[in-house]
Specification:
heterodimer; A: 8 strands; B: alpha/beta; four-stranded parallel sheet; binds iron/sulfur cluster
């Protein structure tokens, strides 16, 4: 592998493995008075944090790299893993550098976790972010705009500075660039998945949780340039897969490697969906909060936690499968993840109606054994390749 | 999430029980003949339901949560859940949903043995629980009918902010009412709604008097196991109707008579013996072994004097009343204020107030596997409440309607040793 590429991957990998968030502390320490705001999956309007000169930090649990000492005492066994490792991160002091924490509306676990946070850390800024499920501008839109104004004002207080419309416009432009680069990565991977294996792409996506967006965009750009230059990356006969269900609790990295080894090229997924929640550029001209709100109402992704007013729950998945010329879908949800698992039967029906093959399994962030998944994904991958060749 | 159930047959029937029974059977009769009678049906959820509004259009509500718990009590839920799991629903998710889907797949026979009508509208009142969203999206796949979505924001800080209320009002105005008009073929009649809201408020006064009667020592009611019967009409299809007003005034009279006579709660085995422990309970009950579960308490002389489950359809005891002078605003505030729509700090402080106001000896959390809305954070609540009140709490785990998750022996053991611990504590204090 070329050195430049190797260095890039190594850098992104280290960021991913940095459970202590030293990169965030480093960023803060470089300039006196810098602030950072953490947020859980999926979507928060990071533009507002950025416009206040602060760093948005995506917190997605501790993965398989964190020993849970205290977290288990807070959650019953039938609750998914991400809240317990997130509490563990906080109780062990690893999130002390954060100047606030946001909990977006995604499920009752994250929702109640926001209350637990307020109880456990009464001195810290905590906010539950209730994105509208009504998508009419004058109804859901005006509610959301009100929430955005409140957030902007809160962030101005935390940052100790005014957040102007001009600041907001600049931040929207910065995130437009970032999202454009992410779209480019997804487009390129779909065309030539052998250049962009999931186990690597994932590191670069995760980097978006902790790097300032400008740096993340540059990193993505370099990776997009370097990966195809690697002479060892060659087209191989692997199946093309869309991966669904990983929008919140994160899979262990080993699981992603396992899917590759089982013969799957992942050509679309819902990993780190919050980075790509708004699917198109947001208008930079005009009232920035209005534009952010409008984008939320009209340019958001389809996912389990967002009401599908128009019905046809699985349409987006069928569409993604076709657009990306995928041969099958792998449902991979975190154990006990209500949104993903309740959504799944509807997605399955849509795929069945469209004649698209699928398989499913569950994981948790600390899953350590992948033999069964490898077997299952391998069999699935072989079968759909045979299917599409016949 | 809540219930309309008949009192067990062995209980000596008080007039209110018979009234409730009649109300329920008349409702199911109306549902059974709704197709022939040309009446339209709206499916909706218990917390934050808009019963008065629905009824003001002469529509008939069906509450799938109640069908699920009824199936639990009638020992059918296990079979229904198995059916749903066979059809690809995960073992990990809320069993109310699976019970409902399983029932549907097996012919949609309701609690009274007749087939339930299909919905003409799914009113997705999205209050206090994310699962509701997925539940009705799943039902939408089964029925070709419109959905009215009512998103009720969460009260993370326990305060109803004006923009939250306005958002709910606007949705009622622009999403819910037009769809109710379309389905019913009638125009929105605000005067009729006001009349119903006035009736709601009357019944709510009496309900509060009944629930707060448990402040007496000994308590004349069990505010959890008995309480789930008392909340039945007002949390479901009857709020805003004259029948509910009559029911609650009768119930109140009966309870007041019991106070005068110094009597305790009535249990399925007749009047309860001497009150030995006064408890607060957080979390829904288990329905598949409901009587067995209750017996574990009354056999020991333990009476539940307040519970949070009986607040999922509104915190009337904290002062909320439907206000006919502000019809849509009051409905919005009602939706916003239901127990599971409140942030954990508010829930915790409510429990703390209950422990003090009701002079409780202890408190118990029944953590149900199905319900993340209730359950996430309960272990922290337990510890916090212990610290705030100086009283040790008990924690048990079960499920709503999945019989696989109710281990009678374990639960009984837990309860008995908890009560013993409370005894020891008393002895130490008095020594
Ligand atoms: S993994 Fe699923 S259930 Fe758990 S917090 Fe995330 S969305 Fe909620
Ligand atoms: S998760 Fe809880 S509140 Fe929601 S439907 Fe299930 S039991 Fe009811």
């Amino acid at each position: 592998m070329r050195q430049q590429l190797q260095d890039l991957i190594e850098y992104a990998r280290l960021l991913y493995e940095d459970v202590d968030l030293t990169v965030v502390s480093g960023w803060k320490n470089r300039v006196e008075g810098r602030k950072a705001i953490g947020h859980m999956p999926i979507y928060v309007p990071r533009e507002l944090i950025h416009a206040a000169g602060m760093l948005p930090v995506g917190i997605m649990g501790g993965g398989d790299r964190l020993e849970i000492v205290r977290g288990d005492a807070y959650f019953q066994s039938y609750i998914c893993r991400i809240p317990r490792s997130t509490i563990e991160l906080a109780l062990s002091g690893r999130l002390d550098m954060l100047d606030g924490m946001l909990f977006p509306a995604i499920c009752d676990v994250i929702r109640n976790l926001s209350g637990m946070w307020s109880i456990l850390f009464p001195e810290r800024y905590v906010r539950y972010i209730d994105g509208p499920q009504n998508f009419e501008g004058r109804v859901g839109g005006s509610f959301w705009k009100h929430e955005l104004v409140q957030l902007r004002d809160d962030f101005a207080v935390i940052a100790g500075r005014e957040v102007t419309d001009e600041n907001l416009r600049e931040s929207i432009a910065v995130y437009n660039e970032n999202r454009a680069e992410l779209r480019e990565l997804y487009r390129a991977r779909s065309l030539t998945p052998w250049f962009f294996p999931l186990s690597e792409v994932y590191y670069f996506l995760r980097a978006g949780n902790v790097l300032p967006p400008e740096e993340h965009t540059v990193l993505l750009r370099k990776y997009l340039e370097e990966a195809p230059r690697d002479p060892e990356r060659k087209e191989q006969d692997q199946s093309r897969i869309v991966l669904v269900g990983m929008f919140c609790e994160q899979p262990p990295h080993g699981l992603l490697v396992t899917l590759e080894r089982a013969g799957c090229w992942v050509v679309d997924d819902d990993l780190l969906l919050g980075l790509r929640w708004i699917v198109d550029d947001i208008d930079v001209e005009g009232d920035p909060l209005e534009n952010l709100s409008h984008a939320y109402l009209t340019q958001s992704v389809s996912t389990a936690s967002r009401y599908a007013a128009e019905g046809n729950r699985g349409a987006w998945l069928v569409d993604s499968t076709r657009r990306n010329r995928a041969e099958g879908v792998i449902f991979s949800a975190a154990s006990f993840c209500d949104p993903a698992l309740l959504d799944q039967p509807m997605l399955v029906s849509a795929l069945d109606r469209a004649g698209i093959p699928h398989t499913e399994f569950k994981y948790s962030e600390d899953t350590g054994q992948f033999a069964v998944i490898r077997e299952q994904a391998g069999t699935f991958s072989d079968s759909i390749r045979l299917w599409s060749e016949s | 999430m809540t219930k309309i159930i008949e009192h067990p047959a062995s209980v000596s029937k008080e007039r209110s029980m018979l009234m409730q029974k009649e109300m329920i059977s008349a409702h199911y009769d109306a549902l059974a003949t709704s197709n022939d009678d040309g009446r339209k049906v709206v499916y909706t959820f218990v917390p934050g339901n808009l019963n008065e509004l629905v009824r003001s259009f002469d529509l008939l509500p069906v509450l799938p949560e109640i069908n699920a718990l009824q199936s639990g009590m009638r020992k059918l839920s296990g079979e229904y859940i198995a059916e749903a799991e066979k059809q690809g629903h995960s073992e990990d998710v809320c069993t109310y949903v699976k019970c409902d889907i399983g029932m549907l797949k097996k012919g949609n026979i309701g609690p009274t043995g007749t087939k339930l009508p299909k919905p003409d509208l799914l009113l997705l009142s999205y209050t206090g629980c994310f699962t509701f969203l997925k539940w009705f999206e799943l039902l939408r796949e089964e029925y070709d009918c419109p959905v009215a979505m009512l998103h009720v924001p969460y009260q993370a800080d326990g305060i109803i902010h004006p923009h939250q209320r306005d958002y709910v009002v606007e949705q009622i105005r622009t999403e819910v009412i037009p769809k109710l008009e379309e389905v019913s073929g009638r125009k929105y009649d605000e005067d009729r709604l006001r009349e119903m809201l006035a009736l709601s408020s009357k019944a709510e006064d009496d309900l509060v008097a009944v629930m707060e009667s448990a402040k007496h020592v000994p308590s004349p009611i069990d505010a959890y196991f008995g309480g789930v019967y008392y909340i039945g009409p007002i949390f479901s299809a009857f709020r805003g109707l004259p029948g509910a007003v009559d029911y609650y005034s009768t119930l109140r009279e009966e309870v007041e008579a019991r106070i005068t006579a110094g009597e305790g709660p009535i249990t399925p085995d007749g009047p309860m013996g001497p009150e030995r422990y006064r408890l607060i309970v957080e979390g829904p009950p288990n329905w598949t072994s409901f009587r067995e579960f209750w017996k574990m308490f009354y056999d020991e002389g333990a009476v539940v004097v307040a519970s949070t489950y009986t607040k999922v359809g509104g915190l009337y005891d904290r002062g909320f009343r439907h206000d006919p002078s502000r019809p849509l605003e009051t409905l919005a505030e009602y939706c916003l204020g239901c127990y599971t729509n409140l942030g954990l700090p508010t829930r915790l402080s409510l429990l703390e107030q209950y422990v003090r106001e009701y002079k409780a000896d202890g408190f118990l959390i029944n953590s149900v596997k199905s319900c993340n809305s209730f359950s996430v954070g309960q272990l922290l609540m337990l510890r916090q409440l212990e610290a705030k009140t100086g009283i040790p709490g008990a924690f048990i785990e079960s499920d709503l309607v999945d019989p696989r998750y109710f281990s009678a022996a374990n639960v009984k053991n837990r309860i008995e040793s908890y009560l013993q611990m409370l005894d020891q504590k008393r002895q130490t204090v008095s020594a």
